[in-house]
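Subject: complex prediction, re-run

Hi both,

The earlier run crashed halfway through, so I resubmitted it with identical inputs.
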Amino acid sequence: MRSEVLQESLSALMDNEADDLEVRRVLQAADQDPALRGTWERYQIARSVLHKEHWQGSADLSAGIAAALRDEPELNMQPETVAPARSGLWRNMSRVAVAASVTMAVLVGVRMVNQGDVPTQPNLAADTPVVAPSFATSAARSGAVLAGYSDSSSAGAEPIATAQAPSAWHEQRIGRYLREHAENSAQFSSPQLVPYARAASIEGR
Amino acid sequence: MVILKRGWGCCYLAALLVSPAALANDAASWLQRMSDATSQVSYKGAFVYERSGSFSTHQVWHRSTDQVVTERLLQADGEPHEWVRRDGHVQCASSYSAGPVWDAASQSPQDVETLSQWYSLEVLGATRVANHAATVVSVKPRDNLRYAYELYLDSETGLLLKSLLINERGTLLERFQFTDLTYTDIADANLEPGAACLQLGVTLKGEQEQPDWQPGWLPPGFTGGPTDVRAFSVDEPAVSSRVYSDGMARFTVFVEPLGEDRLANDLRAQLGPTVAVSRKLNAADGVFLATVVGEIPPEAAERIAASFEPGLESVQ
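This time it finished cleanly. Structure:
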């Protein structure tokens, strides 16, 4: 019975139809139940296939969702009064609120690769410290931050992780190369606007 | 009844045998339509671009008349980054370098046939982007020397509505996506550059003789354009640069001399989808710095950077 309810909550969550309590319930249960986590993962893969969205199988969204919910005010409601009633204004409002949280969290989960990503770490000069990925830390601090929304806090150290502290000239040069490459790519008549957008994103720094 | 069943079985089998090739052909023709769409439709719209550490919104006005494409792009948030391009040439840009026009002719048109040699092409299905029906084409590398793309094309016009760049571990590296798109004639006024859009600077052609450093190894399928030699500023030695592309991915190789006030070491940097790998090159006539910059996996860039040899014409 309990697992049936959980399954239903999980389905609702996948449809963005879960209310706040259902989300908490699923998160809590998933924490202790590997089988439920497995189901959740399969649902996510299935959904990504259905939506033709790319899905990274390795990411665990529940942590991000939990983080997003942690920052939300607690609900003043008993579970029993909520679960069966699947209609009404309150439910609709809460559905919107939860959907928003989940969307944020998903965006955190699908965070773009950055310097903190272990396999892309520079493999040279292991004796010198690697520049800390400021984006990852700022995202972790605030729970749910959409990739790139932390502009002001990360603008200083965001762009480049290096294996060793480069000379000021070299650092400036790398920035210049990145711009040159991006602008050069953008100037070709291309069916894509992507190179232009890339160049603009470097320009904006 | 039996005959009917047999009939279905035969068709099903035929479909199984035919479909992979047919799918690839279909995807290839979609990519061709995407290339053609640029010069066939006029539109205005808005799009977003997202990568690690950056999220920006942009507006675009695009006019195609008699094969002449004029396009104005304006960043809608932050600094008003602007770009006006006419017939393949940038008219003005609000870029800090306002660099010279690179030879657009060196860009070979995207050859879909060649592309399928290095990428497997597949139509994944249909969805909706910016309120337009979209066809999803996946462009997956056949080796680990390039990234994968997921392209969402307008099912009616072939215009690229959304593009995802994905690495070999399935991580999303960047997202480009229209949020609003209207096919319409574009008035002249909408293509007029604003005050922020500056005329391009003068080319500082480098005349110095430089040893011709070239990578000894390239990922298969990549071909180079002409080598360009010029200085970034008046009082600096010339930098030679060369662009390489496989039809989807692109990287640039920069080589310039080092000196007392121009110190550098081997280095690897990553900005969103773009990697930069520097290698110091020792030669009889001085020390040079070669840097590979592009939207390719770091491992591929490392391998290119490690293969530099003086005066050796690169493969391809």
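The two ends of chain A are 55 Å apart (CA to CA).

- K.
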